Amino acid sequence: MSTAPQLVVHRDKELMAQAAAARLITKVVDAQASRGSASVVLTGGRNGNGLLAALAAAPARDAVDWSRIDLWWGDERFLPDGDPERNVTQAREALLDAVPLDPKRVHAMPASDGPHGADVDAAAAAYAEELARAAGPTDHGAVPTFDVLMLGVGPDTHVASLFPELPAVRETERTVVGVHGAPKPPPTRVTLTLPAIRAAREVWLLAAGEDKAEAAAIALSGAGEIQAPAAGAYGRARTLWLLDAAAASQLPRTLYPPASP
Ligand SMILES: O=C1O[C@H](COP(=O)(O)O)[C@@H](O)[C@H](O)[C@H]1O
């Protein structure tokens, strides 16, 4: 069942990152209070890293019990461990190295020099198994019910490494797949699929900057998920688009009415 997108538009990308970081802190603290631990899926890209940097700078980050959080990734650039272009490397720099996480609960996607070597499909299958092991009887299928799953929206409407028209966005069975020939470098990637994304309680789509305006307008105007993968990303309980005014500038007036004079 899809949940209708809700929109929150902030003045600019800095405020959006700070507000999203505050929202994430509250979600994690609440999940830890009600279920003992929290499970969050991180995204790469400029907006995702901006949120993590804002979280690192927020005094309220100390409200989170960092030892009781599972971190997963929505996608990864299939590069050697420690490569500066890997999403996990960038997340470590922005936040993860600064907080007392339990390393066993930081579920980075495999690197291209890891146990599966250059076989990205084997790497994707291994991550799917890791997710399946973490899923419990009350979860929905072969992934845990993530509390929050974040996705940066690309200017071409891609989310995670689900690019328009590529086979990964058509996947209906597997939870994680290898991506070959992505239009954005690097071409080889690992990604959660739409069924895995839709297992999350809340899906947050992050779009800040003018270069995201067309993508947000297309995805929120009824486009199909094969042509506009962001349109197919929704959560079980909530789908939240967090935008800045620049990214919201081409939205239909019915979704985002202009401010009154
Ligand atoms: O390559 C990727 O791009 C998207 C969007 O990144 P952005 O810099 O345009 O915001 C990101 O969500 C994804 O995780 C990443 O691998």
From TrEMBL:
Function: Hydrolysis of 6-phosphogluconolactone to 6-phosphogluconate.
Pathway field: Carbohydrate degradation; pentose phosphate pathway; D-ribulose 5-phosphate from D-glucose 6-phosphate (oxidative stage): step 2/3
Top-level enzyme category: hydrolase
NCBIfam families hit by this protein: pgl
Source organism: Streptomyces cathayae
One Pfam family hit: Glucosamine_iso
Domain Glucosamine/galactosamine-6-phosphate isomerase, residue spans: 12-241
Signal peptide annotation: none
EC number(s) from the headed UniProt entry: 3.1.1.31
Family recorded in the similarity comment: Belongs to the glucosamine/galactosamine-6-phosphate isomerase family. 6-phosphogluconolactonase subfamily.
Keywords from the UniProt entry: Hydrolase, Plasmid
Catalytic reaction(s) noted: 6-phospho-D-glucono-1,5-lactone + H2O = 6-phospho-D-gluconate + H(+)
Listed CDD domains: 6PGL (cd01400)
Protein name: 6-phosphogluconolactonase
Name of the gene encoding the protein in the UniProt record: pgl
Molecular function via GO: 6-phosphogluconolactonase activity
